User: Fold this.
Amino acid sequence: MEKILVTTDQSTNSKAAIRFAIKLAKLRKAELIILHVYHLLKPFTWTEHAFAEYGDSFREKTTEELSSFIAGIYHDIDEPEINHQLALVSNIDVVDGVIDYAGKHNCSYICISTRGAGALTKMFGTHTAKLISSSPVPVLCIPSGYHLKELKHVLYASDMTDYENELKKVVDFARPIHATVEMMHIAYPSEFAFDKELVEATLQKKTDYKVTILNPQRDITNALLQDIDHAVKISKPSVLVLFTHQSRSMFEKLFFPSNAEEYSFYGKIPLLTFNKNKASKS
Assistant:
């Protein structure tokens, strides 16, 4: 059975990702794993036995709190509980804990809430940005203020460098939930125009799924993200899909954040990101 992982720190902000993950797991008939990553510091004066007992007590108490927290979310969305499990993992780094768990348990997607970040936090990384830039598992970033809607339309923003491989992953996400797929390429003035109907027919043949084309023109007076945002307003997708490079140097990551990382800070719709390097090898 497919597994969908959602992270929580039991905060109000994390509820949006859990609500989304519940809906997605139900649509995909997947198992839902709700993960809490924690780290306990051992006081110097404690014995190993005392610390182990404290750890057991902490995990038991946290599991009870987490169960109550999740039950409250189910109550709020008026949905019966689906097949899910609670997982607690000890790791000094939250992102490492999430990625390690997702890899060991063959999770198909990781869901996380995002609430935006200031300039300094953006530069040095939030959990969301770190997941996007390092996770081999696709990441779904859910704005903390997002209100649950029907998942009926997926917009895939493509730079056309590896669109066939990337589109297969987009269709794999959309097909089980019966969502429509639209591929967007923002064209520069110097690019050749293509036959929309011919391209759509070709893509449907290659993917065995209907894919429509959105081909807005690049406005060089805008930042690229402004053009993406304008296209999103036209398309009105349920989910925006971006593929991000993870092979950049630390200098590039600090001073030239990827479009996916930047968009996750102010986007108002769920953002699904894939590792572009991994997609090209599949």
Remarks:
- The CA atoms of residues 225 and 259 lie 7 Å apart.
- Residues 117-125, 249-257 have pLDDT under 50 and may be disordered.
- The longest helix spans residues 48-77.
- The chain has two domains: 3-143, 153-281.
